[in-house]
Design goal:
The protein has about 120 residues and is α+β, with helices and mostly antiparallel strands. It has 3 helices and 3 strands; from the N terminus they run ββαβαα. The protein is globular, with a radius of gyration of 15 Å.
Length: about 120
């Protein structure tokens, strides 16, 4: 039986690609995302078309839909707890922001990254 859940959340793997001398250093965690109420929210673009506006548009979208994680550790070895402040801090780093955006888009649009 199908039960409509307007606050449906799901987990999806997030692969962060850090630059390294040998190519890429890929680190993975599990993101928890909320399904958008309206899929048009996924296609919002910045009004002025500048690169900083594009980054802010992506950050805003991910702030709305990236609602948790598991598998992110602190430097001291403990699990990094989710908070709005920590999420905002993570989204300021381009490798993380790009990985989360890629994972969210992949999950919702059925796009898979080629190996």
């Amino acid at each position: 039986m199908f039960v409509f859940d307007p606050n449906y959340t799901f987990e999806w793997p997030v692969k962060v690609k850090y630059p390294s001398a040998g190519g890429e250093d890929i680190r993975e965690f599990t993101g928890v995302f909320r399904l958008p109420e309206d899929e048009l929210d996924l296609y919002k673009r910045p009004e002025d078309g500048t690169f900083p506006s594009l980054i802010n548009t992506v950050r805003d979208r991910l702030t709305d839909y990236w609602v948790g994680w598991s598998g992110i550790e602190t430097a001291s070895g403990g699990e990094l707890p989710f908070s709005n402040e920590t999420r905002a801090r993570l989204l300021r780093q381009s490798p993380i922001r790009e990985a989360v955006d890629r994972a969210f888009s992949e999950a919702l649009l059925g796009l898979r990254e080629k190996n």
